[in-house]
User: Fold this.
Amino acid sequence: MSQSKRQPAPESTRIISGLSEIAGDYDAIFCDVWGVLHNGMRAHAAAADALTRFRAAGKPVVLITNAPRPGDSVIGQLDRLGVPRTAFDDIVSSGDLTRADVRERAGAGVFHLGPERDRPIFAGLDARFVDAESAEYVVCSGLWDDEEENVDGYAPLLALLLERGLPMICANPDIVVERGSTLVPCAGAIAQAYEAIGGEVVYNGKPHAPVYREALRRAAAFTPEPARERILAIGDAIRTDIAGAREFGVDALFVARGIHAHELGLDQHGLSLATAEPWFAAQTHRPHTALDQLVW
Assistant:
């Protein structure tokens, strides 16, 4: 059984050109989805190829996503975008964890704050949908219209939820996510705003430990449970992917050409240690390794 011991922080971040440089150091990968395998509109073929090559050595890849939908639904999206199933063994979503929370509250009145497309999160569950004035708890899966609205517009609603003392389950802790070349706000931004005014929030997904424990359990179905120092977590977000990996005690590989690409100046130049090191040093959690995009 692996130990939940936090690894020492790396003193520097090593820039690599491809996963093949470090693949031999690991027995399993926990990989982010949005920002690594696709950008919401198209798949990154080289990333899928890299994971497929890693799996060819008999080592599992478990995808971990903050998508507020069941894992099976996310796989359907990957199929539509053209991400091959050879790239992963299993998937754990924040939607899966949220479903478990809703199941525990069977029959209670729930106010769903989020778009209609996220309703599969409740499929087959005893969820009684009510308005904010009647709810016993809130499930937040995102903004109703993340292309036209911003979090500030939700202030009156959040004040009402706080006045009623409603706990909020955040089904996607991401603050923003890429959609093509645009960053759009996610449920985590609303949950953060609710917490800031004193609201109670339960976050399902990265960077919180339960999703990593579930990924470890899933990986153990394909190989003897790997020691945490032999697990590599891959992602493009410092706050969720890198912080979650570091707190769980596994190494982190940072994909730079994701939500932080503009901060790193990647629209002007490629990733280099000279330009990236000051940025890494200023972050709350430092990755062990980094590359421009996930390739083999």
In short: The two ends are 30 Å apart (CA to CA). The first helix runs from residue 45 to 55.
